[in-house]
Amino acid sequence: MGPLDSWEFTDSEGRAYAVTVEPDLDSTPRDADCYSPDDVRRWELDEWRYVGLVVTPIINDEKIDTCAESLWGVGWDELPKGQWIDRTHQYIVDSVTELAATARRNAQQWLREARQG
Fold it and tell me: Structural domain of residue 96, as residue ranges?
């Protein structure tokens, strides 16, 4: 199964990133006590699912997969559909921004090591 969604963005300093939304086949609503029986039933009926947000830095038009950062166990279709489609839900924005900052640090370290070795 491939990505459920993907997009690219540029941060305030002009650095580019790719974001993919991947199916999370390991998480279930039984992992936490915050879901109602109705929520669990809807999950069992595939009315919603868990996903991972994967943020990968892009350098010279090339994705640096080894520097990617991810967050898993995010509820897909729990948020209003329009907020996933236009990526405006604050949780998505905040999560992607934090992952991008870490991915950027990973890429900077990767570039230093590549230059040295």
Answer: 5-116
Residue 3 tokens read as 């990505």
**46: region left, alpha or beta (phi > 0 left; psi from -120 to 50 alpha):** left
Alpha-carbon distance 37 to 80, whole Å? 20
Stated pTM of the model: 0.80
Residue 104 has a CB neighbour count (10 Å cut-off) of: 18
Are the C-beta atoms of 10 and 100 separated by less than 8 Å?
no
Q: What is the pLDDT of residues 80-90, one digit of tens each?
A: 555 555 565 67
Q: Considering its fold, how many domains does the chain have in total?
A: 1
Of residues 53, 82, 58, the one with CA closest to residue 69: 53
Do residues 74 and 53 touch, judged by C-beta distance below 8 A? yes
What is the token pair recorded at 42?
């809807």
Alpha helices for 3-85 (secondary structure H) = 37-44, 81-85
**Both tokens of residue 17?**
């990133």
How far is CA 27 from its chain centroid? 15
